[in-house]
Amino acid sequence: MANNFSKWKDPNTGNWTATCNWCKKNYSLGISGGYGSATRHLKSKHPVEYAKLGGGTGKQTQISRFANNQQAFGNLSYNDAQNLTGMANLLVEKNLSYLFSESLAFRDYAHTSLNPQYRGYSRKTVKKEISRLYGAEKVRLQNYFANFDGRVTVCSDIWEDTYHNLHYLGLTVHYIDND
Predict the structure, then answer these.
(1) CA distance 70 to 88
(2) How far is CA 172 from CA 92, 143, 158, 166, in A?
């Protein structure tokens, strides 16, 4: 997308805007910097350039065409579910917004530097994955401590993220087991 659009922040609204490098039309990217409208523009007005990005005709490509293409990917194996889980873990660990996964800069980076087949995830998809991971980790910890033969102390700590004006309650668990 970076070769097809110039991205800039509108000083009047504070929103990100993309200008098509082919026809010079402007598209609002909103606060998040997502490029859905810009992608739709490229697909409808500049189909050749869209196809170069891997957009094609909208028909689903057979997975076997990618899975058997060792020349293009070498020993790299791409697992979409594993990639989604990695994205969710990144957002949680670095305390990033769900919108990060839709940002133009990240998608361009992932597409051009990491994997040309990367298509990204919507914030709703990432949010569902984070909820799923939370549920799985919660069950894992409950099962672990239900059968735990040792001693446990739980300490709480309240802290504030002044930059984002958020307040947190942190829990720290110390335990002694038989090992």
Answers:
(1) 28
(2) 17, 18, 11, 19
In a domain, residue 103? The reply is no
Which residues make beta-bridge pairs with 42? none
Q: What's the pTM?
A: 0.51
Tokens of 57: 């005709």
Helices (H), the chain: 36-45, 47-52, 63-67, 70-73, 80-93, 104-109, 123-146
The domain total for the chain is 1
Task: Characterize 143-168 residue by residue with b for buried, 16 or more Cβ atoms within 10 angstroms of its Cβ, and e for exposed.
Answer: eeeeeeeeeeeeeeeeeeeeeeeeee
Phi-psi region of 14 (alpha: psi -120 to 50; beta: other; left: phi over 0): left
Q: How far apart are CA 146 and CA 83, in angstroms?
A: 31
pLDDT digits (tens, 9 = 90+) for 129-157: 999 999 999 999 899 888 888 888 999 99
| Whether 116 contacts 69, CB under 8 Å | no
**Is the separation of the CB atoms in 156 and 169 below 8 Å?**
yes
- Residue 19's domain comprises 1-59
Q: Do 98 and 123 meet the contact criterion of CB atoms below 8 Å apart?
A: yes
| β-pair partners for 176 | 151
In a domain, 47, yes or no: yes
In a domain, 65, yes or no: no
